[in-house]
Structures
1.
Amino acid sequence: MTTILQEAAAGRATIVPWTLEQYRRAIEAGFVLEDTSVELIDGFIVHKDRARAGEDPMTIGDRHRIAVLRLAQSGPAFERLGCFLQTQQPISLPPTSEPEPDGAVVRGGIDDYLDHPPGAANVSCVIEIADSSLSLDLGPKLAAYASARIPQYLVADLVNDRVLIHEEPAGNSYLRVTTSVHGETVQISAGSGHVPIAVDRLLP
């Protein structure tokens, strides 16, 4: 017996993705639970995988947890540059995505977004801590962030112990990709400047 995804891949079925508007209406109506464990990526409601590679996808890996906590500690440095750092909160990328990245540097202050999440034009950098989610973070999510022209996308690759810095979005990819490893420092774009963060803090 084939699955609907196999049928669609064979051209015998059509899968219609959700729009961001439909997704939000479904949440408001209670049809879809407002659940911090899912996000909308490319029209599909996707489980946020924070597990260690090879482990139960419903768990949160210790390295992932510590990396996000350490990232959050750098928040005051962004505020001095007219931005704030939000962690695991939505950013709006219409028409079909509303990811909740592990980190996002947002221009302005928290009170500027009382009735809506920040959009791509408000975000200078997105950060994902990637373990078992690595293929998603370097595939559909990268394409979504690049297509929205988010200037900088950092992936803390816990599988290969490196940080990938993507810059210069073009189409659904980035033209420039550099790699940093333990002992080095990455410069995170913060609108009016940059905030240095040691790679060791992102790769516990």
Note: The chain has a mean pLDDT of 90.
2.
Amino acid sequence: MNWQKLRDDIVVVSWNLFKIMIPTLIIVKLCQEAGLDLWLADMMAPVMGLMSLPPSLAIVLTTTMLTNPYAGLLVASSLPDLAGLSVGQMSVLALFMLLTHSLPIEVMISRRTGVRARVVIALRLGAGFLAALLLAQLFAVTGWYAEPAQMAMPQVTVDPSLVGWLKTQLLSLVMIQLIIIILLVFLEILRLIGVERLMQWLLGPFLRAMHIGDRASTIAIVGVTLGLGFGGGLLIKDVETGTIAKKDVFGVVCFINLLHSIFEDTAIVMLMGPSLVIVLGFRLIFAFALIYAIMAAVKLLPDHYWQRFLTNQNIPAEAG
């Protein structure tokens, strides 16, 4: 094992993530203090009915979009309207949260990999609304999942002070650093014993169906299982070397934006009582189908269109 290279990779991935996450966390906190989350909730309230959800739950969705599913869950646990929702309504709420959470940080990470921020924002919000509307209509027509949701949300005490927020963010950053170290060591071991090639072989057919090259398979696996932050951090490092084509970068970034951290995030929203078939199975099929359609539509576009509308200067010209 090349320990020098491993140490350099840890430094590069950590720096690429933290220089995005820390300023973004501060900006989001300032926006929350200024009431941006409440303003966004008021903006979303009129469309909640289209998703068969009470208008009061708009604050849950906007909090999740600005921060993370944990924060959205805490807000949801304090709302009386949540207790009367069906499994179908909870599934719609949970799926929207999974597709649109942590937008500021994850959009900035995606932008750093070379995909334009406006594309990621449109993809995430468009996918969230589309999936929610499709499910709401499906449940209304079929009557599926009409039984009351069984919630299992714990009571959590949150320190609302600035000091409490700083402690929480510092702890999160320390945990992320530890995960990065463990992840990169683990990936290096997988490379040495040949498991990485096996993962590429297993995931290759699905990626190729979405017009994404095999070179991005390991990053896709990391993103899907551990999260966009870690997958994006690895992708940033590889993009800088120019070894991944811009179309593969675009495809894998779009894919892991819709389907990432499937174990942790799924476990979080399952506390609200949705259907696992919907939040995991439907999300998986929806992500594959949507990215397949998008990649089929954009793969033949001329380079100047890609450079102007889809990708940015963070992808080296030699990446193709």
Note: The two ends are 31 Å apart (CA to CA).
3.
Amino acid sequence: MTTRSRSIAFLIAASLALGACSGASSVPPGGNIELARSTVARVAANPADAVLAGSAINAFGLALYAKLAADTPNTVISPASIALALGMARVGAKGQTGTEMDAVLHSLASDANASWLNALDAALAARSGTFKDANGKDLAVALRIANAPFAQKGMAIEPAYLDALASRWGAGLRLVDYINATEAARKAINGWVSDQTEQRIPQLLDPGVLDDMSRLTLVNAIYLKAAWQDPFEASATANGTFTTAAGKAVTVPLMHATTSLRYAKGPGWQAVEIPYIGGSLAMTVILPDDLTAFEQQFNAATLDAITAALGETQVTLTLPKFSIETKAELSALLEALGMPTAFSGGADFSGITTAEKLVISAVIHQANIDVDEKGTTAAAATAIVLRATGMPAEPVTLSVDHPFLFALRDVPTGTVLFLGRVGDPSITR
């Protein structure tokens, strides 16, 4: 496998059900980790809501991409993974915290749009399967999207939050012990992500991300493996020249094909859509004449206009094979997009718990993608870490303005080493 750097890719996805069960109960979910979940059923899926969810994810993702990719040669992110993980935090946010998150997420996970993500999940659940190519050969598409909140054992969780996880994500809370077994909790979360991504993301959370004040980690994982509808001939791949954004000529493996594809051309750009087997998933490749100038106006509306313009035509396509990865901490970027309160002392996640005041302490995202003659394999994961923060105490006023005593002590033993009284500090020795 070639070394991963970063490039542009957008995986539009939503959450697979982890299952709803009864009560606010604790049960072992096939392992040693207990699960607390609600009996509330998942909301009904409306196909129109899935489209609205996709639009909101795209608008959020392109705004985030613009900030994340500003100073990097290559970037790959999953807007869906980040939005889904943030959505699990949003349903417990109140007041200004929730208002800001709705603005940044384009109301994706607001109470008014509770059905959106569930509808998108229902639409995407049918994408996996085995499909025959033009020669009758069976080729597979695997799209796995899962969500797993990991909460502190014994933490009092608001019933409405458990209901929201069940109805919108089909998920419950996995119970770990951040306070007494922080490293074990980190390993459990990383192990779950690794399993869900077929080991493509073995360590999402590095040592030190969690501590004994961590209380809830909201995790999303996405795995995609899909064959092209018309694979590139491996024998046609040859080394060729690719000119980087810096103007440097590099030699890379270039794939070649002449086939019927959806293509469009506009002012300063060309685009082509390469379908995966089954026809429900595709990669849209956009080639600007000037990447820097194009990205300055690249947003969800631009992407919509480009995909709407695509039409079937014969295309002779040259495309580099690539294998790239991005890992980033997104807190500062999300604050800059317009949701600073969630990361501050003013955060209000009382919809999750009122036992302790929670604040988002980290947003970790990792994504990678491999593209070759056969198709694409990609994975992404996002973790939203919420930690407890003490309520600020009212300041105490103490004016030492009259005679006082002092005792200089050895604290571990309680031994008083010096003892005295000050009646007039103006008298010096």
Note: The radius of gyration is 26 Å.
